[in-house]
Design a protein that fits this description.
- It is elongated and about 70 Å long.
- The protein folds into 2 domains: about 40 residues, no CATH class; about 90 residues, Immunoglobulins (Immunoglobulin-like).
- By secondary structure, the protein is of the alpha+beta class.
- Strand 1 and strand 2 form a beta hairpin.
- Helices cover about 15% and strands about 25% of the residues.
- The chain contains 2 helices and 9 strands.
- Strands 3, 4, 5, 7, 8 and 9 form a 6-stranded antiparallel sheet that branches. The chain has a 3-stranded antiparallel sheet with strand order 1-2-6, with no helix packed on it.
Length: about 160
Amino acid sequence: MRLTTARRWLGRQLGRRLEWQLPLRSPGLGLGMLAVVLALAPSAPARAAWSAAGPGSAAGAATTMPTGTAPSGAATSDFVSISWTAATFPNGTPVAGYVIKRYNAATGAEATVGAGCSGIVATTSCTEQSVQPGTWVYTDTPVQVSWTGGESPGSVPIVVGVT
């Protein structure tokens, strides 16, 4: 595609006439700048590619994040202890941690998880402290660095401080 044709096409895509600030004497430079502008265009789809030259070999791998397993638990006073089965990758390696969520069993509204189970829990059990009275359902979601697996099914409802 000639550079002037590319300018017109890009101008139509962006909805305005393009004014180039740099003289483009080298076709390679012009096409390179066009590639940068196209990469930054708001409606362009994202693409990625790479290439390398040289001797040797390379390998790549991919895996999927597991979904959590439904926790079980019990309440003592305003403490709730829950535990769940470890989530593992397909090769058997356990995930690094879990994010615990608590939901109101009657409304399904998410509640803030308190000390003991907040943040990333690195084990397969935790005890939440100072839980408000009510009936609660807990879930666990496996996490590994910045990856997040699927949220587990909810626990059996756990009653706290309701007589």
